[in-house]
Amino acid sequence: MENKNRLFLVFFFLCMLFPAFPKGTVKLSLVAPDGSNEVGLGDKYYIYYKLDNVSGEPSEPASVPGSNKLSFSFSSSSSRIVSVNGRTEQSTSRTYVLYLRAKAEGSYTFGPVTVGGVKSNTLHFKITGRKSGSGSTARGNMQSASASSSDANSEGSQGSGPRFIGKGDSHLFLKASVNKINVYEQEALEYTVKLYTTYSRIKFIGATESPKFDGFVVEDTKKTSDSFSYETYNGQTYATAIIARYVIFPQKSGKLKITGNTYTVSADRSEYFADEFFSHMTVYQPVQLNVTPNDLVIDVKSLPTPIPADFSGGVGKFSISSQLPSADLLTNNAASVIYTITGSGNLKYVKLPELNNLFPPQLEVYSPKTEVNVNVGTTNISGSVKFDYSIMPLEVGRFEIPQVTLVYFNPETGSYETSVARGYSVNVGKGASSDKSQTKERTRFDSKLLPNGSNLSMTHVPFVLTWTYWMFYLIPSICLVGAYIVWNQRKKLMADENAFRSRIAGKVASARLKRAYMCMKKKDETHFYDEMLKALFGYIGDKLKMPTSEISRSNVKSVLESHDVENDLINQLISLIDECEFAKYSSNGAAMDMTVVYDKGSKVIDSLEKSFSKKDIHKQ
């Protein structure tokens, strides 16, 4: 009897020490763009696998009725241990997402699926011929549908899939700003995009293209934030960071618009739980957002009139200096005079006056060699531009090289200002025999009469009556008509910009691959993968006459399938895009071989070009 009591006590304490595991469940839920169980033909939709207390891994389905399967991936996981009155209970939750596109109308069922011996529910859904809306509204509907499907089977929001938000919410948003609203033409302007967030961790920030700067020249600067700082905005404290910065120059007057682009942000939202056993613990919930900063309108003023006749086009603050290596020159021997412009502003676009109109005719001036050495700062461009002119003395003597003035507009004072480079006196001695002296010797007149020839004729046919004379008119006329016809045909072809881009898509992609190859030679991994992604997405957008903003990794497959591109080639392209994006944003990107990635990119683009050429896609 005593032994039985001891066994009972041991069994009781073992039950108290070890955690109890609730019964496992597998839940399928469908998320359509409008939040219902009806999917529009051609729409993307999602099926979420929610595994509670199930140890097995779900298998990727071979097919889904009425739909094209895009991808199947793990989304999130969470675990929880609760101890009440000495009894410990552990629960786990994992979420997987199946990405699909509807391809055929009808009513369908999916499931049940079995994971770790646990069978799921069956989904019933309908595909209709209507097209659902896209953009931020559709994403907002998917967000609410996803939240409701996961909240129905879990405490709080643990284990639910990523949320999709349009322009952001009170926890994360982007704000675009400029350092000035009223500026002059060509005046430097700083454009920044700042991230505001209250989320615990930011894991990824990426943009597929730059903002749209209509009427601006853009200089990209890499001077963005290296870490978060804190700022109070509308009474709320946010962690902030500048994620994009550009120096832009307006090219015309009036109200110019800057349109923000879309950024994808992956973050972790922290949730706190308290219990007697662990005191407290933190669970991080994944959140994915597609966020767009606000648009801006800039009021650009015209430069004051009258504009000086010798205006250099410079807007900013500049100075000019000159340098003459030697004041003793020789005829027929080239020399040089150097003018250097330093300062800040639209330095790359400043022009010097035509020196042939300033220099004496005895000094012939040739086009300069230009050396640009500028630094793109946070609010302006500064540095220097060197113009190295070659001059050729034609005559012996003493000549004056005049001062060269640089007229520019200073936006700080609102007036035109002038900087002057000093002039020089040069002595030109006799050098080697020049072309001019040789010409004089050749044209020297000989007063002796030439002897008369004996082949004179009494009959003479005027040259105007010969075929040779009229051929001088006929041949240029035919060439002119032919050139007009060719020019007119080319003008019609160039009028269709999309068709033109489609025809030269291969050449543009080759140029981008060359830039990637140069980055690879320099071992510049970040810019290498940037150029590879631009080459791949740019080629698809140009070839299929679509804006690059509509081409993304998620819809490349469906777009190419609609143009009858082979599945094997599509899979190679998607795999290469995944490798480039992983290497670009992952800390393990350095482990990848850039040579292998470059060779794959060249082969994929070459194969796509051949595939499109067979179908003569540019004529579609």
Describe this structure in words.
- The protein is α+β, with helices and mostly antiparallel strands and 620 residues long.
- Helix content is 26%, strand content 38%.
- The chain contains ten helices and 32 strands.
- The longest helix is centred in the C-terminal third of the chain and has 29 residues, at 467-495.
- Mean pLDDT is 78; it is low at 16-21, 132-166, 274-279 and 434-447.
Sheet with the most strands, sense and barrel status: 7 strands, mixed
Helix content percent band: 25-40%
Rough shape?
A: extended
Termini separation = 92 Å
Number of strands: 32
Gyration radius, rounded: 37 Å
Structural class: alpha+beta
Which runs of at least 5 residues are low in confidence (pLDDT < 50)? 16-21, 132-166, 274-279, 434-447
Work out the helix count.
10
Instruction: Determine the mean pLDDT.
Output: 78
Summary?
The chain is α+β, with helices and mostly antiparallel strands.
Give the arrangement of secondary structure elements.
Blueprint: H1 2-17, E1 25-31, E2 38-40, E3 44-52, E4 67-84, E5 87-102, E6 106-110, E7 114-115, E8 118-119, E9 123-128, H2 136-151, E10 168-169, E11 172-178, E12 182-184, E13 189-197, E14 201-207, E15 212-213, E16 216-221, E17 229-233, E18 236-250, E19 254-259, E20 263-275, E21 279-291, E22 296-301, E23 311-323, E24 328-330, E25 335-345, E26 363-365, E27 369-376, E28 381-393, E29 397-401, E30 404-410, E31 415-421, E32 424-429, H3 435-442, H4 467-495, H5 497-503, H6 505-521, H7 525-543, H8 556-561, H9 567-585, H10 594-615
Parallel strand pairs: 2-9, 12-22, 23-30, 24-32
Antiparallel strand pairs: 1-3, 3-5, 4-5, 6-9, 7-8, 10-11, 11-13, 13-18, 14-20, 15-19, 16-18, 17-18, 19-22, 20-21, 23-25, 25-28, 26-28, 27-28, 29-32, 30-31
